[in-house]
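for the writeup, i need someone to sanity check this before i put it in the appendix. the sequnce is what the collaborator sent (i think, or maybe the updated version? ugh). structure was predicted straight from it, no edits. if anything looks off just tell me and ill rerun, i have time this weekend
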Amino acid sequence: MKWFLMVFGVVLAGQVAARGGAGSDFADIAGGVVTLPSAAASPEAVRGVVFTLPGPPAPVGSAPVAPAPVVPALVAPAPQAEPPKVAEAALPPIPPSTDDHPPVLRRARVFPAGFDSDSALFCQAMIGVWTEADAQALLGEALRQRLALGEEESESGLIFAFADPTGHYQELELDFANETGVLRGVFAYPWKMTWQDCRGLWGANVLARKANLGRTFYSYLNRRLDVLVDHTGKVISLGLY
């Protein structure tokens, strides 16, 4: 290895001497520095040749590489707990309809003063005033109609049956005279009423007459009221005139 370096140095020195002459001790060869012996030295004295070869270029600094972003691991969402089930409240059974309990009116209506407290007495106050159209304006359409018979079974008017909007009575019947067309009588059919109830409300100042099918007809002497009662004492109808 040393022999190779020495030979290489001698060859290189010869090339430098040919170019620049013997007056220079140092020559710059491609970035390398070569130390040559002086001219007075003998050829045998060439033994301390030191030269520096160009090294590889310094590595170009590379840009720092940004670390790869850390992707968080996907975590499945925890299942949501179902809301507690609320037990459905049991609905009360609908009671069966009977004649002993009148239906309750659910419609929101505004009635004239006194009509809601007793519809039959209110209609009695309209005797001589109301026409059939007036009655329908308050009571609605008539359910049916029948003839009103007078003396010798002659037709004297028309009786219209209406549902009671207040629910106090099963039905209200209004008797309109043929001659004038105005109201002349009212018949009310209670849901549950006895003759004893009538005595408690209006007293016993009556004239009693027997009717067919074991019924009794009571006519009050101190008020415009008739009461038809069956053989058990239950009131069938109230007649107001």
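The radius of gyration is 66 Å. Residues 119-240 form one domain.
thx in advance!!
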